[in-house]
User: Fold this.
Amino acid sequence: MSFDLLVRNANLPDGRTGIDIACRNGRIEAIEAGITAEAGKVIDASGKLVSPPFIDSHFHMDATLSLGLPRMNRSGTLLEGIALWGELKQILTVDAVVERALKYCDLAVSQGLLAIRTHVDVCDDRLTGVKGLLEVRERVRDYIDLQLVAFPQDGLFRSATAERNLLTALDMGVDIVGGIPHFERTMEDGARSVARLCEIAAERGLMVDMHCDETDDPMSRHIETLAYHTERLGLQGRVAGSHLTSMHSMDNYYVSKLLPLIAEAEVHAIANPLINITLQGRHDTYPKRRGQTRVPEMRSYGINVVFGHDCVMDPWYSMGSGDMLEVASMGLHVAQMTSRDAIRYCYDCVTTHAAKAMNLEGYGLEKGCRADFVLLQARDTIEAIRLKATRLAVVKSGKVIAATPAREARLSLPGRPETVDPASYAPHEG
Assistant:
């Protein structure tokens, strides 16, 4: 029997070692130890980690790589970022959106990031971002699963044409209904927007991804409302609440009621640890709160927790690298999830948990799944996060679409080794 691609001697995220992965016609045909077969291409993993691709379930691709346009966010604050985006929207062109988004997708692929859910602002009557990202989705479809969220960034009711534009965007082919209730003029309007947007999704058979509880404002909390309407409309499993950063300000009694509601409604919780901890809590003196979504607590209730990148070099966030391992690392630090099991959980937050939230078909490392995976310069998922491990090979549909040389330093020290491989420092457990 002959295969298109055969990966030998891989470690898998679930702890299996010495595993071979045989691929044919874009699918995994066999995944087990000791596969004896020929293949058009053979990769020797040499005991390194092979992982399903990384996933970013919360991003803003219409703004990515626009840092400095029309001017720099000098303060680094959320409010200046919002003002800057308002200025940038006026001069956006479809071609510019497409160019920057495609450039970002190149970076994403090099990092093994092969599925992205991006919000796209519909509060521009020209729908420039929508037109641009619909084109990008088509152009990258062979190597990135790109989901688009119709996002009324200026508020569904605050912006006079937002609902009309959102419906038009959905008619044009945008995949998911988005919202930002805390940006409405009142808490009541915020709650109304959640209800209306969920109703639109239910009518059209679509998923929902709602920016929720993104600030410390106690009058701008809507995850409870989102959970309610999810159940009312039978949307269980199809709804995500993104950010949820005000959880650092909620009293424990309220949380003890809230988390079971989220779990019961099967709402996915998408935290964005990089940007959350830099943009939130700015009005505190001390103690300072910094966008701490209650990840361990949600985990204990069986809520599907996901980590997103949110922004890379745009008006709101000047940093970012497209590296979901950086996101996982920040998530485990800020949520204080440093047990061995919890660190592995954080890895799942940028892989399998995200696939569940995005309802991706054929994702994973099992027979019959799509032959999409990443070979990392690390022994296991914990080491991958610790090292922000080099992506030695990125495979899509059984073909290597990106490769990076192994990271290795050369030393000139008397009596010491000639080279240093960071992956060789992994501890030996038990």
User: Anything to note?
Assistant: The chain has two domains: 2-52+364-425, 54-357.
